């Protein structure tokens, strides 16, 4: 279902063709990184720290090196010695410890051998002498007075402090007069919220193959959200120049932010260099959960004030986000995501902590879901106390174009009001709440980003086209590229082949993150097509001996002086006679990313005997700007919703007192399965982004933001219990219901 | 020099209709044998512990996780992987409805879902939504939220029933 | 010359001032001038941060032209997942 204010109609944009890479994916032919094997390839295994924090006294690999099949061993001493101020220092130290193991699972050495079993056996035989150090495992431990330092290389960002600290960043945002805001309020609500670390949960574990040649250059086949970033990060970790590294993107089996950084490639390259053979390195699921990814655990206090008329006068919040073993921006982005309401008086404190747990990574709208849990819960309580409809209260306070974000900058054209109205007018919201169930609504926001992209469009001899980009396709973006090219060129979408090219075959392109691929890379594709059309008109003018000024491009053909017509195949067939191959390239650093808002509604039933929450109905509306391929826009909305549902109801990192993750497998790290869920009704709202040629905003991120508060609010409606810590799993919810307080 | 690894076992079985044989160590998983010895990399490893279903195959018509079987256990059996679902150039209706219904995003879980869904439809040609959801509960997908997968299976059932009438 | 809006974080350098008129024809020149007036502020404005100019988010926009009517917001780095 699509609610649209988009007045334009397109021939290809907005249609739902079969994706170009689909056939390979339903027949098992698509090659992901772990599916690739090179002649003479070795297999590698990693040695990981059993301690949450320890000094590495010595590493003795002599026994491992003497074992059958072993060809190479590397340790931290083999890697570039970066200064802690280097922007890639934390990434590099995370993939191979130097001097100290910073969390349980931190890699301290790696082994390559002829078979995987030999590599695993040799890794177990590497002797590491550790001197255990005091570990800091939680936000509360990190900020306690006299706490041990979790990572002695951490300095609080921009503080100028020379001393190590467990605080990664301390930031403040605000406006107005917070005290006056509370004085003007008739109702004030304050709560503390806690959320556990969760994993992105991509089904494909990290994997790569590296082949280092005699010329000192390396080829890497990798599964990543950005192969140019794999190249630059590998170069930094090894101290190499980027021209020594070529990265070929394999299909990627899910990323959600977790594959924006790297863990394996520099290790595989060094092992390959030492052994002079290709090396394949694949993580197990346990390794993925122990040592990659998690989104930060949080502790957030929030206090909101409103008048009896429903005007929110003020919001004050202190947000702690735990980055795990290294510094990061998670707290900052959490605070920045508070941008949905007018809030004349606002004070946000964002504090990032460092602990001896796995280094956190971006996860879909990074940090916004945790912040939304706090803010959207308080707004729901305000609506309850005021006795007003929760959507009406939000409509009354919703930001529109020109209103300030948390950072003060005004919102560009946005569709928050339209998205709220889409839910308000939905069949779901206008249906009665089922007997015994509770209904909750909540909203979400994400900025979206632009960044750098390149695209080349080649017209082939027969008039078919190839669209070459450098954006790994993590959710159907190739189809979107082909659709925009089809619309521009007037060429049927099945005559266009969209490909993701390696780092030596297309211009630099930033990571597929921040909902930017269809927005920014799509813009590069459009620009390249437009340049190509100018060239096609020139060629048509040459063929017809006409003035190019008299040539127009209409529906896939050059029209000369309003009548004579030359199609793309007719022009490409004569390319060699008119100046050679038809190709165009465009590169840009895209400005004008369009924020996307989402509003979700859920009906839930809670079993008061077991504490189990059953979702009876779920509807998610989101502003896509323009949906290029609506099926994959719906897919992003539905997938984001279900990740958020898992985060809300079941998923959490459980550590023991030694910092060992106790549930490092899919049996105990419980992600949603089909039988846990109803259909997810997706409503696409289209308020076009004026900064994109087709109005694209990007849709990947925002869908994960509303589900947590949506379900918390629905559970409150069903049970009368306000859950303020995640996950709202059956035992916790049961304890809260029976104890009358959050469990 | 003493031998450093054990003698390997020869396994004979039928895979996607072809008679095959391969050598493997006794502790080799069927998943690794299919991928490494037979090149059937459509069978994916997502967890290695039977929790994600990415390696779902049919063994004598029954759903199994290839990662939970030792390769020698496949002796004499008939195995179907995602590579064997299509009849020559003709896609199975499930493959077609997954494509047309956008029931895949990254596609790494797709082979397991297709095999599990085929097993369901082979046994129950007209499943309810709930039956589909429970039949696929052993397969994890992190991209789609399952909505379009369930709909694609429903649509394939309709097509298969239409064809058989 | 343009109008520059600073974050709360930045104001410890400016003695609490949050909105300033700053000389310069590009964003980079504004940063240079701000660093001259408030030593230490410059790195906060350049390290990975984006600017919003008249409401449009512009990554890495140090050469963006500004004039007397331009409203410049220095915003924290935004990435994504």
Describe this structure as you would to a colleague.
In chain A, α18 crosses α19. In chain A, the strands form 6 sheets. Chain A has a 7-stranded mixed β-sheet with strand order 4-6-2-13-10-11-12. In chain A, strands 1-27-26-25-17 form a 5-stranded mixed β-sheet, with helices on both faces. In chain A, α14 links the parallel β19 (465-469) and β20 (496-500). Helix content of chain A is 27%, strand content 25%. Chain A is α+β, with helices and mostly antiparallel strands and 743 residues long. Chain A is built from 20 helices and 27 strands. Among the domains of chain A are: 408-448 and 594-743, Aldehyde oxidase/xanthine dehydrogenase, molybdopterin binding domain (Aldehyde Oxidoreductase, domain 4), CATH 3.30.365.10; 450-590, Aldehyde Oxidoreductase, domain 4. Chain B folds into 2 domains: 9-84, Ubiquitin-like (UB roll) (Roll); 93-164, DNA polymerase, domain 1, CATH 1.10.150. Chain B is built from 5 helices and 5 strands, in the order ββαβββαααα. Chain B has a 5-stranded mixed β-sheet with strand order 2-1-5-3-4, sandwiched between helices. The longest helix of chain B is centred in the last third of the chain and has 18 residues, at 147-164. Chain B starts with 8 loop residues before the first strand and ends with a helix. The relative contact order of chain B is 0.15. The mean pLDDT of chain B is 95. Chain C is an alpha+beta fold. Chain C has a single domain, classed as Ubiquitin-like (UB roll) (Roll), CATH 3.10.20. In chain C, strands 2-1-5-3-4 form a 5-stranded mixed β-sheet, with helices on one face. Chain C is globular and about 35 Å long. The chains are: A alpha+beta (743), B alpha+beta (165), C alpha+beta (81).
Q: What descriptors fit this protein?
A:
heterotrimer; B: alpha+beta; DNA polymerase, domain 1; 5 helices; 5 strands; C: 81 residues; alpha+beta; Ubiquitin-like (UB roll); five-stranded mixed β-sheet; 3 helices
Could you report the average pLDDT of chain C, rounded to the nearest whole number? 86
Shape of chain C: globular
CATH fold topology of the largest domain in chain B:
Ubiquitin-like (UB roll)
Radius of gyration of chain B: 17 Å
Class from helix and strand fractions of chain B: alpha+beta
CATH architecture type of the largest domain in chain B: Roll
Largest sheet of chain C: 5 strands, mixed
């Amino acid at each position: 279902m699509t609610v649209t204010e988009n007045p334009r109609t397109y021939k290809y944009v907005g249609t739902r063709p079969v994706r170009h890479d689909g056939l390979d994916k339903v027949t098992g032919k698509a090659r992901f990184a772990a599916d690739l094997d090179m002649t003479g390839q070795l297999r590698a295994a990693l040695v990981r720290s059993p301690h949450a924090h320890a000094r590495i006294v010595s590493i003795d690999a002599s026994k491992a090196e003497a074992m059958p099949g072993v060809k190479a061993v590397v340790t931290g001493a083999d890697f570039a010695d970066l200064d802690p101020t280097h922007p890639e220092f934390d990434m590099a130290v995370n993939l191979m410890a130097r001097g100290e193991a910073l969390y349980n699972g931190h890699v301290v050495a790696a082994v390559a051998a002829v078979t995987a079993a030999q590599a695993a056996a040799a890794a177990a035989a590497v002797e590491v002498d550790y001197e255990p150090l005091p570990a800091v495992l939680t936000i509360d431990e990190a900020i306690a007075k006299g706490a041990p330092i979790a990572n002695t290389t951490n300095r609080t960002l921009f503080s100028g402090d020379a001393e190590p600290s467990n605080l990664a960043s301390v930031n403040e945002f605000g406006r107005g007069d917070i005290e006056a805001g509370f004085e003007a309020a008739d109702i004030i609500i304050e709560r503390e919220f806690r959320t556990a670390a969760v994993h992105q949960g991509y089904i494909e574990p990290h994997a790569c193959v590296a082949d280092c040649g005699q010329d000192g250059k390396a080829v890497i086949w990798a599964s990543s959200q950005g192969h140019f970033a794999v190249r630059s990060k590998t170069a930094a970790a090894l101290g190499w120049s980027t021209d020594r590294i070529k990265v070929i993107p394999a299909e990627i089996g899910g990323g959600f932010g977790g594959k924006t950084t790297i863990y394996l490639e520099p290790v595989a390259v060094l092992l390959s260099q030492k052994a002079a053979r290709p090396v394949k390195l694949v993580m197990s699921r346990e390794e993925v959960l122990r040592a990659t990814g998690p989104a930060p655990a949080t502790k957030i206090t929030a206090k909101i004030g409103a008048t009896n008329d429903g005007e929110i006068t003020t919001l004050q919040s202190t947000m702690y986000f735990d980055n795990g073993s290294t510094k990061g921006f998670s707290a900052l982005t959490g605070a920045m995501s508070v941008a949905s309401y007018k809030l004349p008086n606002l004070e946000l404190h964002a504090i990032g902590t460092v602990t001896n747990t796995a280094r956190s990574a971006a996860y879909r709208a990074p940090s916004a879901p945790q912040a939304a849990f706090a803010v959207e819960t308080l707004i729901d309580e305000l609506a309850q106390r005021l006795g007003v409809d929760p959507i009406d209260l939000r409509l009354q306070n919703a930001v529109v174009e020109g209103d300030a974000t948390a950072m003060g900058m005004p919102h560009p054209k946005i569709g928050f009001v339209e998205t709220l109205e889409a839910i308000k007018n939905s069949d779901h919201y206008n249906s009665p709440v089922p007997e015994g169930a509770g209904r909750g609504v909540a909203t979400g926001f994400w900025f979206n980003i632009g960044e750098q992209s390149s695209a080349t469009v080649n017209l082939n001899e027969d008039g078919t086209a190839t669209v070459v980009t450098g954006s790994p396709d993590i959710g159907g973006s190739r189809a979107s590229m082909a659709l925009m090219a089809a619309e521009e060129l007037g060429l049927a979408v099945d005559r266009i082949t969209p490909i993701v090219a390696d780092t030596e075959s297309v211009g630099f392109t930033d990571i597929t993150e921040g909902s930017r691929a269809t927005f920014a890379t799509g813009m590069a594709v459009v620009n390249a097509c437009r340049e190509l059309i100018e060239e096609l008109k020139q060629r048509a003018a040459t063929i017809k001996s006409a003035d190019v000024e008299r040539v127009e491009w209409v529906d896939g053909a050059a029209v000369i002086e309003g009548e004579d017509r030359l199609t793309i195949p007719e022009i490409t067939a004569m390319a060699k006679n008119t100046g050679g191959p038809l190709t165009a390239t465009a590169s840009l650093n895209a400005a004008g990313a369009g924020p996307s808002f989402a509003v979700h509604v859920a009906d839930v039933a809670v079993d008061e005997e077991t504490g189990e929450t059953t979702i009876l109905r779920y509807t998610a509306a989101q502003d896509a700007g323009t949906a290029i391929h609506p099926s994959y826009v719906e897919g992003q909305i539905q997938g984001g919703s279900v990740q958020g549902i898992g985060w809300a109801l079941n998923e959490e990192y459980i550590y023991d007192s030694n910092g060992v993750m106790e549930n490092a497998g899919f049996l105990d790290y419980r992600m949603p399965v089909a039988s846990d869920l109803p259909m997810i009704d997706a409503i696409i709202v289209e308020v076009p982004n004026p900064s994109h040629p087709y109005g694209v905003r990007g849709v990947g991120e925002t869908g994960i933001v509303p589900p947590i508060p949506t379900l918390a609010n629905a559970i409150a409606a069903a049970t009368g219990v306000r859950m303020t810590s995640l996950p709202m799993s059956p035992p916790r919810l049961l304890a809260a219901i029976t104890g009358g307080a959050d469990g | 020099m003493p031998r450093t690894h054990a003698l390997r076992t020869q396994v004979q079985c039928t895979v996607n209709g072809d008679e095959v044989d391969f050598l493997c160590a006794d502790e080799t998983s069927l998943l690794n044998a299919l991928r490494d010895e037979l090149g059937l990399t459509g069978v994916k490893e997502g967890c290695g512990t039977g929790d994600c279903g990415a390696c779902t195959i049919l063994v004598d018509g029954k759903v199994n996780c290839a990662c939970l079987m030792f390769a020698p256990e496949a002796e004499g059996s008939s195995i179907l992987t995602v590579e064997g679902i299509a009849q020559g150039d003709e896609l199975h209706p499930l493959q077609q409805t997954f494509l047309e219904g956008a029931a895949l995003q990254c596609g790494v879980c797709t082979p397991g879902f297709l095999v599990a869904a085929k097993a369901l439809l082979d046994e129950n040609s007209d499943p309810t939504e709930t039956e589909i959801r429970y039949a696929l509960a052993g397969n994890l997908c992190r991209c789609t939220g399952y909505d379009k997968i369930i709909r694609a299976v429903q649509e394939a059932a309709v097509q298969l029933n239409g064809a058989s009438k | 010359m343009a109008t520059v809006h600073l974050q709360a974080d930045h104001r410890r350098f400016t003695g609490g001032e949050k909105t300033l008129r700053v000389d310069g024809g590009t964003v980079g020149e504004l940063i240079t001038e701000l660093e001259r007036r408030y030593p230490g502020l410059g790195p906060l404005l350049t390290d990975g941060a984006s600017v919003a100019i008249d409401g449009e988010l512009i990554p890495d926009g140090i050469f963006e032209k500004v004039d007397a009517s331009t409203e410049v917001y220095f915003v924290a780095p935004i990435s994504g997942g």
